[in-house]
Amino acid sequence: MANNFKLKTKASVGVSTVGIYTVPTATTTTVIGITLANVSGGGINVGVGITRASADNVSILRNVPIPQGSSLEFMGGNKLVLEATDTLTVKSDVAASLDVALTIMEMT
After folding, report:
1. pLDDT confidence tier of residue 84, bands split at 50, 70 and 90
2. Phi, psi of 14 (to 5 degrees)
3. SS3 (DSSP) at 94
4. 59: domain CATH number?
5. C-alpha 57: how far from chain center
């Protein structure tokens, strides 16, 4: 089993839900950290979720405020395991206001 650390990023996320990362087939992924940075001129509210093939989609964060010029790293030592075809999604309530950095380890 090969383990590969990766960084996935997405700049200027806005009011539409965006898939940041989808787990490839025959792969299990451990999310090590998620950093959300407010790059707008005011405060924003953000959401993070998981979309699953089983249609059991869940929210990890919902309408969490991030002040202007701040960032949020909410994993706090916890890990999140994603299975093949799971997608990690993010959304902001302000257009082009959120930068996302996702640190993962893929196991194939």
Report:
1. very high
2. -130, -140
3. coil
4. 2.60.120
5. 14
**How many domains does the chain divide into?**
1
What token pair was written down for 68? 């202007």
Q: Can you point out the beta strands (E) in the chain?
A: 3-13, 18-22, 28-38, 44-51, 58-66, 71-73, 80-82, 87-92, 98-107
Give me the domain span that covers residue 15.
Answer: 3-107
Q: How far is CA 105 from CA 31, 53, 81, in A?
A: 7, 21, 10
Nearest residue to 93 (alpha-carbon basis) of 31, 47, 49, 56: 47
Instruction: State whether residue 54 is helix, strand or coil.
Output: coil
Q: Strand, coil or helix: what is 104?
A: strand
Q: Write out pLDDT tens, residues 32-63.
A: 999 999 999 999 999 999 999 888 899 999 99
Compute the distance between CA of residue 86 and CA of residue 63 in angstroms, rounded to an integer. Answer: 22
